[in-house]
Structure formats: C-alpha cells, structure tokens
C-alpha cells in the first residue's frame, strides 16, 4: 500500500478536524485519503526503521465504532508520532447502498496507547464489512512524515443496533404515533396460492419465516428473527381493516386476543420510512418463554402491553380491549406458528396496491424524523 496524502473530506464543515474529533475517540485526527501513487510533493517519505504493525486485533465492535490494537517491534518505537489507518468498506452485492458517499475513510491519528477507539457514524455503517490496515509514522520538524510499510489487511464486520440505539428510535417514533384507535383483529394478506400451500403442506398452520431486510440497515431482527407478518391498522371512519392491500387479495383475520394477551410479550423492533410522508413501526409479539421471546429479550426494548404509544392490550369490565396508534403504520411480527382454523380466510373487495409493499424496502437515510445519529 502507498502512504496517505492529507486531504479534507468533500463537503466537510468549516472546521473539519473539530467535527471529526467529536466522532472519533482519537487525538488530533484529520480525515485523509491515500494517494494511488507515490508523490514527491505529498510530504511523506518511507523509512524502513519504523516498526510495521502486525497481528492487528479488532475488538469492542458496535454499529459505529471499534477498538483496534496491534503488535510492534521495539526498534525505533519511541520515534512514532502518528498512526495512519486505512479503513475501507468491503464491496459485495449485499453492501449498504446508503453508506455516506465521497467521504474519505483514511485516518491520521496521534500515537496514543493501544487499543485505540475509532468512532464515526458518517464513515461506519452497521452490519457492514470493512477492511483495515495500519502504518506507523514519524512527523518531522519540517512537517514531512517518515512512514513504515503498511501492515497486513484484515477484515471485520460492524454490529447491529444495540438496545440503546433502538430506544432512541423508539423515542422518536413515540413523538409521531398519534392518538390510539380501537382494533379487534389482526390480519394477514397473501395470494390464494399461499393459503392453499399452507393447508396442503403445513397441516393448516402458517409457519414463521426469516424477516427480510426492510427497514433500518442496523435492525437486529432483519435476516435473523423468524415470525409471521400481520397488520392491525384500521380505517378511521369504519374502525375496520382497510379493504386494500399490497400483499394479496386473500386475507386471514384472527381475533386480537388469540395473538396478543397477557401470555405474550411485546417488543419494539424498528422505525422507518421509504421516502414517503408516512412512517412504519415494527413490533414483535412473542409468547412468553418461546424461542422468539428469548431472541427479542436480548436485543429489543420491551414494551408494557397495557401502556405504550403503539399497540395496547388491557382489560375493561372483564373484556380484553385493544388499541393501535393512528399516525404510524404498524407491522406486527408474531413469532410462533398460527393455525388457519383460529381465524377466517376471505377475498378482499379492494385493490392490491403493490406500491405500498415494504418487502425488502430500504429506509430513507436522510429523513430527520426516523433516523438517529449512528450508521443508518
């Protein structure tokens, strides 16, 4: 690898160094980019005496930070004044298309005790693979750098959102949830062939499947949690489910108490939009003690089923009463199989609005309503 040439990020603030320091737990950091060729005017020269980092270790990985350390020979170690860190997103077909563009991710840091924390939501995205290499440097009196050879390149992957990040999303979603409306059923739309297949091949029971990659890129349930998708929003004027659906002309309806009751736990899963004015909230209902419940308990904020801003279940005069938020579209994931005999299947009279489908939908990373200050 070639040594870096110092440069500011494209479109950076008036004081880029001050802004970057807020997002990196390093000292005196500047964004820099590596020159593709050795340049005489770069102010950097090579010198073999400086130790080359080896045995690089990455630890304490979060969705927008990590710690890095390495071993070095003791020879000339006291001459090291800076570290050059070359961080690149590993390109693959599943890479995060919404990673911030045109921002260099080559860092220059003053030599500090290792391990060193690298943090920055504008160049680290959650659940994304990166490569990293390190170079030691000695800054000369005239401002030039003497540098070592680059270390070996290693790979690592950033983490999903933590409960702390999801709680931030939850709080933003609560702001726009709106008033609560009554509901009596959960419903799931599919094509006729889906229900025929369930009857013939699964003994009449809908089976949980792995959630797709719709929503926030850092959501810990995407591609991992198994469940069955249900809707519960009602029309304001009728109090009943809408007759249109993007998912199919046949609808399974089931009484709310059969899925959501004091024997289930409720979790907040995500908050997102798709470049539209309306927003989606993903909730997870899991029978207490089930595998889905254990999965969510470790990763998602749990909601009080009687008192939250999105979906409630409470007893009034001996009868279970249910309410849902009016101003967000709720996507409810139930984590256990559901037998069709517990409800009814019928054809809807409305239209199949494919444009409203959220299947593998990507979140708008620029929306101020549903984004937090970590990787999208």
UniProtKB/TrEMBL annotation:
Function in brief: May play a role in the development of the central system.
UniProt name for this protein: Phytanoyl-CoA 2-hydroxylase interacting protein like
Top-rank taxon, per record: Eukaryota
Pfam families according to UniProt: fn3, PHYHIP_C
InterPro entries reported for this sequence: FN3_dom, FN3_sf, Ig-like_fold, PHYHIP/PHYHIPL, PHYIP/PHIPL_C
Domain Fibronectin type-III: start-end pairs: 52-161
CDD domains documented for this protein: FN3
Transmembrane segments: none
Family listed: Belongs to the PHYHIP family.
Source organism (scientific name): Gallus gallus
């Amino acid at each position: 690898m070639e040594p870096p040439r110092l440069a500011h990020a494209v479109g950076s603030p008036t004081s880029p160094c001050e802004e970057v320091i807020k997002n990196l737990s390093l000292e005196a950091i500047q964004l820099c980019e590596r020159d593709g060729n050795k340049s005489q005017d770069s102010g950097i020269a090579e010198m073999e005496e400086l130790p080359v980092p080896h045995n690089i270790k990455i630890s304490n990985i979060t969705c927008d930070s990590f710690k890095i350390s390495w071993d070095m020979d003791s020879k000339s170690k006291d001459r090291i004044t800076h570290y050059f860190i070359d961080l690149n997103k590993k390109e693959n077909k599943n890479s995060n298309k919404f990673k911030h563009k045109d921002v260099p991710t080559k860092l220059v840091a003053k030599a500090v005790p290792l391990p060193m924390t690298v943090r920055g939501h504008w160049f680290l995205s959650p659940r994304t693979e990166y490569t990293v290499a390190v170079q030691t440097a000695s800054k000369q009196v005239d401002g030039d750098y003497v540098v070592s050879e680059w270390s070996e390149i290693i790979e690592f992957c950033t983490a999903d959102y933590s409960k702390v990040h999801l709680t931030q999303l939850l709080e933003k979603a609560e702001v726009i949830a709106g008033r609560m409306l009554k509901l009596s059923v959960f419903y799931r739309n599919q094509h006729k062939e889906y229900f025929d297949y369930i009857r013939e091949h699964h003994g009449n029971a809908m089976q949980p499947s792995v959630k797709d990659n719709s929503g926030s890129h850092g959501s810990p349930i995407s591609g991992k949690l198994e469940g069955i998708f249900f809707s519960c929003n009602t029309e304001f004027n009728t109090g009943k489910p809408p007759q249109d659906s993007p998912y199919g002309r046949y609808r399974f309806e089931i009484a709310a108490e059969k899925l959501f009751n004091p024997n289930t736990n409720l979790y907040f899963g995500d908050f997102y939009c798709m470049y539209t004015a309306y927003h989606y909230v993903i909730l997870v209902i899991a029978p207490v003690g089930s595998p889905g419940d254990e999965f969510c308990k470790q990763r998602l904020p749990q909601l009080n089923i009687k008192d939250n801003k999105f979906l409630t279940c409470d007893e009034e005069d001996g009868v279970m009463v249910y309410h849902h938020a009016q101003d967000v579209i709720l996507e409810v994931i139930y984590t256990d199989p559901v037998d069709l005999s517990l409800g009814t299947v019928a054809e809807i009279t409305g239209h199949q609005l494919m444009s409203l489908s959220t299947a593998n939908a990507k979140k708008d990373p620029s929306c101020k309503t549903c984004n937090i200050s970590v990787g999208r």
